[in-house]
Design a protein that fits this description.
globular; mainly alpha
């Protein structure tokens, strides 16, 4: 099922047109749009295994760090590949929009911890996905203070088992046994 959906990716209406709109001069804004959209996707899909969708935020956040060091002519293909990865994540792990674009996430994360505590809580949690996701969300939040970044980081800390309880890898192993 997933394989078929991924194979048909280029047949989706608007796919090629969307790639054509990835203007390299708008790369920083587009990266911010990508990270915020996937923070929202993460919040909107608590039914999905908790690790894969994290990469929808961490990948463009990492590209933001290296973008100033890339030749300008690589901006557009880099943005295009990220957009393709995002599309593949959506097709592979979601079947509808569920709670995306809504305030449904506020039920799972009614009270956010203080901003200064979030990184320390991630370090204490210990799972590498929680740590890198929290770091990326907080870095993006500093550029664009949308509460969904902080809420997504907090949700990951709740959804992914702590390292001393097996972490994300332990959760996958326990589920498959």
């Amino acid at each position: 099922m997933v394989r078929h959906r991924l194979d048909a990716l280029t047949d989706h209406p608007g796919y090629h047109e969307s790639l054509g709109r990835l203007a390299p001069e708008h790369a920083p804004r587009l990266l911010g749009d990508m990270t915020l959209q996937f923070a929202d996707v993460y919040l909107g899909h608590p039914e999905v295994p908790p690790v894969p969708l994290i990469h929808g935020v961490t990948a463009p956040a990492a590209v933001r760090l290296v973008l100033p060091h890339l030749p300008y002519e690589l901006y557009e293909p880099t943005l295009a590949r990220l957009w393709q990865v995002h599309t593949a994540f959506l097709l592979a792990f979601t079947t509808d929009r569920r709670g995306e674009g809504t305030d449904a996430w506020r039920d799972e994360v009614p009270d956010l911890p203080p901003l200064g505590d979030q990184a320390a809580r991630a370090a204490d949690h210990g799972d590498e996905h929680v740590i890198k996701f929290t770091e990326a969300c907080l870095r993006e939040y500093a550029l664009r203070p949308d509460p969904r970044y902080r809420a997504a980081a907090h949700a990951a800390q709740r959804r992914i088992p702590r390292l001393d309880a097996g972490g994300a890898v332990g959760a996958v192993t326990r589920r498959s046994v």
